[in-house]
Amino acid sequence: MIEINLQLLCFMAAALLVVIGLGGMLFLDNIIKKIIAFTLLSDGVNLALVTLGYVEGGIVSILEPGTSAGAFPENAVLIFGPGIVLTNIVIGVSTTAVLVAVTMVLYRRYGTLKASKVLKGERK
Amino acid sequence: MDSKGLKGSRGIIAVIALMIIFVGVSTSLLQLNGNVARGISPEYNELAPYEAPNNLASWVYDYRGFDTLIETGVIYVGALVSVLAIGRGIVRVKGVEGDAPVAPSSMEFNVSTLNVILKYFGVPVIILLVAYALLVLTGAATSGGGGFQCGVIFSSAYLLGMIFYGRKNPLNLSKKFLIAIGGVGWSIYALLGLPGYLTTGYWQYNVGADLWTSGVIPGVDGMAAVVPDILRQLFGDPFRLLLVMSDGTYASTAGIVPLINIGEAFNVIGAICLIFLVFVYGWNDEEEKSR
Amino acid sequence: MIELQLFPALAGEVTTIVIALVLGILFGTRFQGGMSKRMVGMVFGLSIIAAILFEAPIFTWSLIAGFINEDFSISLAFIAATVGIFIGMLFRGGHE
Fold this sequence. Notes:
The complex is a heterotrimer.
Chain A: H1 6-27, H2 31-51, H3 72-75, H4 80-110, H5 115-120
Chain B: H1 9-30, H2 41-47, H3 55-63, H4 66-87, H5 116-138, H6 147-165, H7 175-200, H8 207-213, H9 229-235, E1 241-245, E2 248-252, H10 256-280, H11 285-290
Antiparallel strand pairs in B: 1-2
Helix pairs in contact in B: 4-10, 5-6, 6-10, 7-10
Chain C: H1 15-28, H2 37-54, H3 76-92
């Protein structure tokens, strides 16, 4: 039997987000909804990366006045995951901006946001 | 695939496929539960407080160095592609048959029907948001915050002004200003790292602290004290931060982190506000002249 | 624990306030449109309330940085940013 702790729950939530995002991207017809599903998938990946730094009974990796600097490295959460997530957030912002821009171009061209109609080349 | 086609047996098949994917993803992630190799993180946790109390700030600005500078370039690529796609119309998506495009319908906000109270409280909220962005920017070394967060809060203030007031945005940022502020940010980031590299060989070495406290540049002989004593009495030591811990007091070199954050924040403000400007106002040269 | 003191300011405590003031002036020049005196007073009062809520940054121990005691401190960087924005608005001719 697996012991249930915060890390396990966060991993489950990350897996759920990734699957919801994947399903939305595959099965939803509206392009805007596809973009929202894409950001959900990206958030799931971020959550998984942050959860990798989990330390049992750990503290935030910010020094506070009066604590012991010697005991800090053992208790602080692992810093690698959040450091990588920062890059991922930036890339997510740029990707979303580009996706929305392309969506606006498609809307001006076809007058619809339905991916099925855009793929068939139907006009309004 | 049309969502109407998912009603019958195809919908059941899709749900089963998603369940299989979920089981696969979750089992592979659960294998990591409690098995994560600590890697370099504990050693970095040990060293990082000597740079700044916030470990993530030291990670971003010291360990990753140039990477963070180029990372903001990614947002600029996003802004550039947005401008190209919807602004000037240089890139045109060719239709399948090559017919004339559908005429775009108006996408502007209807500002005139906005509540009076919202309009009255818009300007104070925008001013306070900008001040909050600057607070987050300056607190990067000691608390969770930094240049990117400052840029995002500032951009949200800009977007708020757009939604409340339309073209009469109280926070009036022109395209030239945004591009200039981005360029200034890049040069701040690069130039603040250079003095430490040229004198000591370490990227972003805090030269200012040595210059201020001892008056000697490390690695360069024969440099006299340049900071007068009265200035030191008045301002203390702006390039260091005094950490009072239970096992003693020591000075970190956090002073350079807020300074480098300014460069990062300028980059992000320039890029994200440019994206908002293109999406809402459009990128049109004739309009710029008349404004 | 270090005693409350006025001069000299300890390490790194003035830097944030000066940066906030200068950047506030820079962005204040980008504001347009007029503001009444009542509005300015209201924003200033709100900023003081916000500064009390945000508190001084950790590892500041002198009155210059807004540290009064463990439970009550003022984030002077926030007030400096607000004041900087108003000064910048004066430069641009905010009261048109």
